[in-house]
Amino acid sequence: MKKFISKFYTNLFLTNRLFIVIACAVVLFMLSFFFPWLGVVPQLFFWAFVVVLLVDIIMLYGTSKGIFSRRHTPERLSNNDDNLLGVYIENNYPFAINVGVIDEIPFQFQKRDVWFKTHLQPRENKVLNYILKPQKRGEYDFGAVRIYVSSPLGLLNRRYNFEQAQTLPVYPSFLQMRKYELMAISNRLDEFGIKKIRRLGHSLEFEQVKNYVPGDDYRAINWKATARQGSLMTNSYTDEKSQHVYCVIDKSRVMKMPFGGLSLLDYAINASLILLNVAMLKQDKAGLITISEKKGTVVPADRRATQLNKIMEALYKEKTRYLETDMSLLYTTIRSVLKQRSLVVFFTNFESMSALNRQLPYLKRIAKFHLLLVVFFENTELKKLSEEHAEDLEAIYIKTIAEKMAFDKKLIVKELAKHGIQSILSAPQNLNVNTINKYLEIKARQKL
Question: Is the whole model's pTM more than 0.90, yes or no?
Answer without folding.
Answer: no
